[in-house]
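Re: Re: token formats

Sure, here are both.
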Amino acid sequence: MSEETEQEMPEARIADSAPDPIAVLKAEVESLRDQRLRALAEAENVRRRADREKSDASQYAVTKFARDMVSIADNFSRALAACPPELRAAADAQIRAVLDGVEATDRQLMATLERYGVKPVSTEDGKFDPNLHQAIAEVPGKGKPPGSIVDVVQMGYMIGDRLLRPAMVTVAKRDETAAPVDTKA
């Protein structure tokens, strides 16, 4: 072998084992494209999360204040319930005027709460829902099925789609007058 051929061989081997510069650049471009897409996706996720947090903050910012206000609404309801219609009809004009004022203030308070997304928890269907109601006692059912709402002791409220305060209710207990099971048979 000549000296020239020996020198060309190692260079040829090195050239064969060296990566193609175009392939390297293409791989780098693909990597950078992938990084760019991931960065754009992350930026979009951050923007969506910020929008959702902003929306939640504006919707639920009044939560603490609303909790205090529903206590006032409870007091108006108690005041009105303390004077049944018969006594109200028999009362003198000044007392009726005061009760009318309390009723009007109660209606205005409830309308204002509703305008800010605070609504009473529904108990009309009579079904007990542990996510919305808090059972404070089991009472005779008065013809209602066991586990259903018998009486609402304190109204519950929602703010948006979150529970502000559960409704405090009494629940019908199982009828204990059912025929005893004969264990001797």
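Second one below.
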Amino acid sequence: MGCDLEHRQNRLKANTIGPWGLAALAIGITSPAMGLYALWGPMQLAAGPITPLIFLAAMLMTLPTAISYALLNREAPSAGAASTWLWTAVHPLAGYLAGLLMTTYFAMAAIAQPLMFALFFHDFLDWLHLEWPQPITLAVGVLLASAPVAWVCLRGAEASIKTTVQLMVIETLVVVALSATILTTKAAEPGAITLSAFNPYQASSLSGFWDAMILGVLAFCGFDVVSTAAEEAHAPREHLPKAILLTIIGIAVFWAINAWVFTLSTRVEKVNEYTSHGLTAVTPIAQAYWGLGNLIVIATAFTGLTAVYISSMQGASRIVFALARHELLPGFLSRLARSGCREMRF
């Protein structure tokens, strides 16, 4: 009876995602490891060794938007998120355009992940001393990234959330372990551990600070993906606002603390040298402290990108579903395949 009712209403299966699953979606698309790997070096190159401050300041700039999303989700949770809100409060055309914009954003994020995966796959082949033609490396890397993500997403929200949680745990533990190793090593060096990275006077320039802030704010982009899980969430009016706000604050603190430790690990000149040559500064740092750091960073890049890929696919598919349900996209895009009525909560 319950399944039949859901079919008639053409709605996503309720009570599928619990509070931890919602948090996993939001954290997955920002990615604890990739946020550091990709942005720490460029931010330091732009602003100087104050990246912890950049992450915290970017959080403060993001919070007003996050609070708006939290309040709207408390009042009107919907898989269409901003598209549905604008459709209802302003005009159907505004909702349609917002939906197309959101779909494009999540789709482009989904497209970018396998391409980035292919780049790290190329680094992995280099580590193995294998030389493949670039087109083959790209094709194989994209296939290796996309095949498991497609399989997981087709299994439904439960499988997607489970996989995202597992991948995030792996990448988070690696980042924490690397930071712990750095702190332990630096503790043996007199005066090596300082709080200078939290001193705004260490900034290279005011313009450099704002250049780095652009990257810092971009790091939080995508947290709104959690809004698209509203119809599948358990008690969405209660859990969605908490998931959004706690994710923004929690990931900012995580990035700030680990960015501080990374700043202690290497001289500013070396980080700037790596970054200016288009290299990931974290890779040589991990190699210096762990020996086989290259492989470890590549492995967590794989897990981080896969988590972002899954979260992006979840967001894009649900926005497309919501628009199709409003008859703004072809109707077949709103058809649902259900394998049962099991509830799963995280």
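Residues 123 and 225 are 30 Å apart (CA to CA). Residues 2-111+151-334 form a domain with the Amino acid/polyamine transporter I fold (CATH 1.20.1740.10).
- S.
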